[in-house]
Hints:
Helices cover 39% and strands 15% of the residues. By secondary structure, the chain is an alpha+beta fold. It has three domains: 22-116, no CATH class; 126-184, no CATH class; 186-217. The strands form four sheets. It has a two-stranded antiparallel ribbon. Strands 3-4 form a two-stranded antiparallel sheet. A two-stranded antiparallel sheet has the order 5-6.
Amino acid sequence: MSEDRDVAVVGMACIFPGAADLASYWRNVANGVDAISELPAGRWPGSRNLELPAGHLAHIPCRRGGFVPTPLWFDAVRHRVMPSAVDHGDPDQFIVLELMSRALADAVGFHYAWDGERREWAHVAAIFVLTPDGRVSRYLYGIDYAPRDVRLALVEASQNRIGTLADQILLFCYHYDPATGKYGMAALTSVRVAGLLTVVGLVTLVVGQLRRENSKV
């Protein structure tokens, strides 16, 4: 069954002068940082064009401006872009693609950073379980996921639209722990279930005893 649904991705990502990421941008805003600076060395053929006559088409009349940090890292492999296409592509398109990826990660609370020494992305491993309307329902952490946890997370996120009666009983006994990202036995629920079974057992015993006595009469 498929339905058309409007999904709002509530996430933010940006690259601004003096701010390579969202955290740096908010920090600059809070501290009142002036991101206008002199033309960085090695950026653009600005140093050459500054010396051209004022009437020249390539003349740059100002040495100051807002310059985004460099280098602007774009992982072509992660975005499924052929590395050979990066050198001949539009840089703005690659920047937008990277920012869209960051915004989506920010929307679900997934954070990562580039490790320059190891030349790889550093991040946690997790499964994000979404409800049918696109809200994050559960986080399952780690690289080894218990089949029971995955199944219960899917059943719970589906709002009981999938799963069996046995799954509903397990959800009654097991609760999700946000700190560990796993499902564990709920102590209070276990006590209640044990108490209920005890009462049922006693009632069954008493009823059986009464029936035997009545049969003797």
